[in-house]
Amino acid sequence: MSQAELTREVARRVFASEFNDSTYTFKESDDERAPNYALLPTGDRANRVFAVGTLTETEDVGEDSEYWRGRVVDPTGTFFVYAGQYQPEAASVLRDTEPPAYVSVVGKPRTFETEDGTVNVSVRPETISIVDEATRDRWVVETAERTLDRIEEFETWQDEQEAPESGSTAPTNEYAQMARERYDSPVENYRRDVIQALESLENVEDAEATA
Amino acid sequence: MSDVRQHADDIHDQFSDHIDVSVDDVEDRLTTLVDEYKVPIDEARRSVTNHYLEEAGLEREDLAGGSSEAAEIEDVDEPEQWIDLTAKVIELWEPRSDSVAQVGLLGDPTGTIKFTKWAKSDLPTLDEGGVYQLRNVVTDEYEGRYSVKLNSTTVIEELDEELEVGDDTSEIEGALVDMQSGSGLIKRCPKEDCTRVLQNGRCNEHGEVEGEFDLRIKAVVDDGIDAHEVIFDKDATENLTGISLEEAKDMAMDALDTTVVADEIREMVVGTYYRIEGPTFGRYVLADDVEELDGPADAEQLLIKARSM
């Protein structure tokens, strides 16, 4: 039956600082068409992301054909978005949009290793749309919430690992385990980014000032 | 298994507790009617069932439904299952074909489902608001939506009781991250009781037809945890985009291309946050009530939590 079709991958919410640290990618089966995942340092996998930020710069970096790079900035860092001939709609948005502008990007994480061994993480967009400030703010709050949820689960798992009396030996958080094996940066860093992102929202500052 | 054999099996199951009869006997009787006398299979089944009812000295109501099983509406997730439902007739719709006696919506505490009652089945009339036990109905599926068909073997019993109808509406909140193909200005098959979307002017069932224009959006709304497929019908699409079907047709006419409508809609809706409420049909949520989320989200509580972690 047609119901057997592949389930659609969720678009994860992740701030730029964490996204750019997601340098390790993996597949979960040997199938040629198996989805590719980036490992988020807070302990989850991402085959697709949804990000909203300010498009601050666009540049055609292609040599033979058009290849557009856009910088999309959120409160924690910059997403690098690359669109070429195989992403014609996204490429035309980057070509036609005059920065600065709020944009939302749905796309896939891609990694690229430079000659000095650094791994750069970028977004290969499926769609880029012009959005308003309210949408950007909502995304910041939503992404803060999802990130805190991941950190919370990571820490719960970590506490269990460090408490020998719990008797639990089975890993209960596969991706947290993977993240601890693959990455050095502590999840605490991302909690600080969440705080910084939330504090950057105007309505929050106002509330604090009057408190 | 052949069609006749399947029916024979069903009939045999219904009577195996009451009389000593083999599946082969049942099949022989059915085959005689169908092959020699050219009786339609439904009618043949009815006739053979009646024969055994008489032989067993039973009334139609005495049959426990045989192979059909008592089920709840939310359990329907496979076509061609024989089930019994206790349900309320929520709505009756106008049949679009003479072959359909009644069509509408049934509900039970777990959800709602479309039903079709064939004219040739010669069953009693269902009243809107009535609660019935429906034994031996068959499930069907079309594009992920399930329905039940009442057929000539179905036993309808009106119950003198109220039935709470469950709310199977979903509420989702998230970003509209994708608009799928088959959105925008589309053409549907104009044949009675067929609303299939045409591909290059062709209906899967009826071949090349003069299609009727319609407007819809098939979208993915994603909250970062789950991705939901949502369908906006003509009204919902008009409300969401402010583009009416007539305007959409004009746009397509001017551009000599129907895809301009989808392009325009995509620009408006993708990347926007919505709250959507509506009934679920298989893997789809039908957008009945749509609200764009453009107010400020509450960051205070989250900030307090983040600081205290």
From TrEMBL, chain A:
- Output the superkingdom of the source species: Archaea
The biased composition feature labelled Polar residues covers: 166-175
From the UniProt entry, list the residue stretches annotated as the region Disordered: 156-183
Q: What is this protein called?
A: Uncharacterized protein
Lineage at the top is: Archaea, Methanobacteriati, Methanobacteriota, Stenosarchaea group, Halobacteria
UniProtKB/TrEMBL annotation, chain B:
Q: Which GO terms describe its molecular function?
A: DNA binding; helicase activity
Instruction: Tell me the CDD domains matching this sequence.
Output: SoSSB_OBF
Q: Which UniProt keywords apply?
A: ATP-binding, DNA-binding, Helicase, Hydrolase, Nucleotide-binding
InterPro entries, per database record: NA-bd_OB-fold, SOSS-B
The Gene Ontology biological process terms listed for this entry are:
double-strand break repair via homologous recombination; response to ionizing radiation
Establish whether keyword Lipid metabolism is in the entry.
no
Protein name (database record): OB-fold tRNA/helicase-type nucleic acid binding-protein
Query: What phylogenetic lineage does the species belong to?
Result: Archaea, Methanobacteriati, Methanobacteriota, Stenosarchaea group, Halobacteria
